[in-house]
Amino acid sequence: MDYHIERGIRFTTEIEYKNLYDWALQEVAEDGTTIDRDQIPWEWTLDFSGMVATGKPLAA
User: Fold this and answer.
1) What is the pTM of this model?
2) pLDDT tens per residue across span 2-44
3) What is the C-alpha end-to-end distance of the chain, expressed in Å?
4) What's the rounded Cα separation, in Å, for the pair 19 and 41?
């Protein structure tokens, strides 16, 4: 299967509404700026899955 990844993804626990969720995924531009809003987990029908495409270690 081929993947076309246009932007980076960042896992974060530094979120605006900590009383609503503990973590989020953020799309990031090449310069490191966050694009749009947090992608938050929820308990309905949307699931997140991911992979490390570059082989580089994830930043803390």
Assistant:
1) 0.57
2) 666 678 888 889 888 888 888 888 888 888 888 888 888 776 6
3) 29
4) 13
